[in-house]
Amino acid sequence: MQITTYGLDLAKRVMQLHWVDMETGEIHRKQLRREALLEFFANRQPGLVAMEACGSAHYWGRELRKLGHEVRLVAAQFVRPFVKANKNDAADAAAIWETVQRPDMRFVAVKSEEQQSVLALHRMREQLIKIRTMQVNQIRGLLCEFGADLPQGRQRGLKEVPDALANLEDSVSPMTLDTVRRQLKRLDELDQDIADIEKRLTLWKKDQEAVIRLMAIPGVGLLTATAIIATVGDMKSFRSGREFAAFLGLVPRQSGTGGKVRLLGISKRGDVYLRTLLTHGARAVVNFQIKNRNPWIDKLLSRRPHNVAVVAVANKMARTIWALLVKNSEYDTNHTALKAAA
Length: 342
Prior knowledge:
The chain is an alpha/beta fold. It has three domains: 5-99, YqgF/RNase H-like domain (Nucleotidyltransferase, domain 5, 2-Layer Sandwich), CATH 3.30.420.140; 114-205, no CATH class; 209-327, no CATH class. It has helices at residues 37-42, 57-66, 76-79, 89-99, 113-144, 154-167, 174-205, 209-214, 222-232, 241-247, 272-291, 295-303, 306-327; strands spanning 5-9, 14-20, 27-33, 48-52, 70-74, 252-257, 260-266. The protein is globular and about 85 Å long.
């Protein structure tokens, strides 16, 4: 018995549905209000519901699974080529329906509520750091207009701000100085908010055995380990470590024709946040090895530029993470890869 495949285009209030009757071949298009969506699928036989991996897609995916339907999320970039003529809700739903039936299509795993909760903490922390950086740069720039020369670095620069304000009391209006001091208090509040989020992530880590195993990898800390577990979930959805590295955008782009393939820089596709965390961790590893005069890093840097070496280490870290999670093993500093038989 063939199950019915539905293409569902999500929106804030009005959803568009597209499906084909398996017995008659009749094409159906239907608009549903948000409050009527689950009622419609509750009265249908279990089928395959395809949606774009967009806002609220994971929520609807969980709810539809509770009703017995199979859910598949497709990246929006894979749906766009199948939109015919003008773009509208009906065309989008039809394109989703057509995309999900491609035999080689890749899908996005539906995240659990726990995964989304952890990722929400990461997103809020990331935004707070951006706001803090903007605030520090603004204070540095404004004081520079009055002749204050603050040293580079957030912590070093903020340490010199009180002395700079004291030196400017005779030349700058009190209302400006008071406002700057108020912004400094706001920076302290941002620091406290960021620290509170990190404490919550630390508490969540204690119950996650996989996170603890990942943190044994050099360059993988609390943020990287928790973000990977919350984003990926089941690592077995990736067939190899290289596929996981490609998901993070850490593999070279390819450009070729006529049998000649040219490798370019890294693709930078996939999750930007995870790629950034891994790259920063890899940079710390490379700098540490340089400081300790490790022979392997000297050999690598003699052949490749510094940033290329950092990305190569990040790629290796991604493959190591895949191996630990798929094989459910511990990190071994003395592990050596077995050479394939000739």
